Amino acid sequence: MKRIFVLSFLTAGVFSFAQSIGNSPYAAFGIGDVKYDNTVDISAMGGISTAYITDLNNKFNFKNPAANTNLDLTSFSVEGTNENNFYTSDYNNVKSTKHSTYLSNISIAFPISKKLKFGLGYQPYSSKTYNVVNSQMLSDSTYQYNRFVGKGTLSTVQAALGYHINNNFALGLRTNYYFGKLYDTEELTYSNADLVNGFESSNKIQAFNFTAGTTYQKKFENDRKLTVGATYTFGTTGDMTSRYKNSTYYYGATEEHLNESIIEESVSDEKSLLPQEFSLGLGFGHEAKWFASTQLDYKKGETIQFLGQPFQYQNAYKISAGGWVLPNYNNFRSYFSRVIYRFGGYYEKGNLNINGNDINKYALTAGATFSFANANINRMSSIDLGLEVGKRGTTQNNLINQTFFNVKIGLNFADKWFVKRQYD
Questions:
Q1: 3-state SS assignment for residue 316
Q2: Best-predicted range by mean pLDDT among 134-138, 243-247, 393-397?
Q3: What angle do CA 25, 92, 363 make, to 5 degrees?
Q4: What SS3 class is residue 336?
Q5: Contacts of 242 by beta carbon, 8 Å cutoff, 6+ apart
Q6: 238: phi > 0 → left, psi -120 to 50 → alpha, else beta; which?
């Protein structure tokens, strides 16, 4: 029986998506809807991170571990994301709204010495959650039913080191450990048939990759500074064990498969799961007053196994720009003069191509960092707020246009936790 995987199921089934980490219907393809990002403050600036060396001493940059020259405090961060997605399609004029809220980042970072900085964090990398049933009447008045089910989460634990060589140069290295299981099932049956034909794919992932980073910072006499940054991610070292099964069966009372007959079954190990990436950034700013940066990210395409068949990710790129403004951190008469206001935007040429259509994405971002009351700029705990509004996809060829409005919030506690106190 020929495997059927058509795009109209995305539209017909978009109403069936559960509240979860991943709401996008495009999560049905490959390793799911990628959520891996950076901290709320960087997300609020369009994602600029490669050349972003914060002027404060309380934040850690995981995206470019070399950009942590100024970290002087122990920083503990917890962040959450609320996603609000609005879907439209020309297929039967479908419209739908979906929401989800999840823990998006938890991390701790601290200086080992004046030159060496360390960070450890957790983030979800990607997610699949969909359960779609599509039906159509055939010419002989029988009905054909297609069911598509996906579930699972791929998570990552990241550890990073940054080393300050001198006043201009720094180097960094980050390793990510990826773990999780992803499942996809496609089923086909007819109204006049007793059996169901199922195509099941399960992927168990345990893998590492490494990112090397560097920054150059030039400070001028008028408190201006120029920053340049670059990172390179080497791709995956590890295994994705893929199990594929094509079988026929019928369902029992508790959804178990009865009288299963296996048509085809295979197990394969993939080494290339996550792509090689390169990033280059350029920034300019005024110390403790404002900063602006632009960035180019490139992601190499990969081929992985999906439902027993090779699935091709395209080469992708992302162009980002953003920055921040701090009106006057010494003005204790006006709280909002000490708020850091962030802004940005990006355009992403995505790695999915469906029916000849690139699934691209663009967004505008904004946010702010609110210090705790009476917090000193040199020992500042804060609340970070980030907003993102944008679009992904297209309505061409019965595909889905996804409009999203995301709210991100984080708590960052910073202090000299591991410094030994001395008394007279």
A1: strand
A2: 243-247
A3: 40
A4: helix
A5: 201, 202, 203, 267, 268, 269, 270, 305
A6: left
> Would you call 222 helix, strand, or coil by DSSP?
coil
**Tokens encoding 321:** 């720009």
Dist CA 258 CA 249 (whole Å): 6
pTM for this one? 0.86
Strands (E), 138-223: 143-164, 169-190, 196-219
Closest CA to 73 of 423, 412, 421: 412
What's the rounded Cα separation, in Å, for the pair 413 and 59?
Answer: 10
Residue bearing the bigger pLDDT, 336 or 240 = 336
Any idea what DSSP says for residue 339?
Answer: P
Tell me how far apart the alpha carbons of residues 33 and 4 are, in angstroms, rounded to a whole number: 22
Mean pLDDT of 360-368: 97
Q: Which string of DSSP letters, residue by residue, matches 8-76?
A: HHHHHTGGGPPSSS---GGGGSTT-EE-----HHHHTTTT--TT---SSSS---SSSTT--TT--SEEE
By the 10 Å C-beta count (0-12 exposed, 13-18 middle, 19+ buried), 413 is classed as middle
pLDDT reading at 227 higher than 70: yes
- Whether residue 309 contacts residue 242, with contact meaning beta carbons closer than 8 Å, is answered with no
Taking Cα atoms as reference points, which of 272, 346, 391 lies closest to residue 37? 346
Place of tokens 């579930």: 151
pLDDT of 220: 94
Question: Tokens standing for 348?
Answer: 């992403």
Q: How far apart are CA 275 and CA 55, in angstroms?
A: 32
Three-class SS of residue 91?
Answer: helix
Name the pairing type of β-strands 277-286 and 169-190. unpaired
d(CA 121, CA 34): 17
Ramachandran assignment for 8, one of left (phi > 0), alpha (psi -120 to 50 degrees), beta (any other): alpha
- Given CA atoms 72, 73, 74, 76 in this order, what sign does their dihedral have? negative
Closest CA to 344 of 302, 381, 388: 388
Alpha-carbon gap, residue 243 to 245, rounded angstroms:
7
Q: Which two tokens stand for residue 166?
A: 């001198």
Stronger pLDDT, 407 or 136, i.e. the higher one: 407
pLDDT at residue 310 above 60? yes
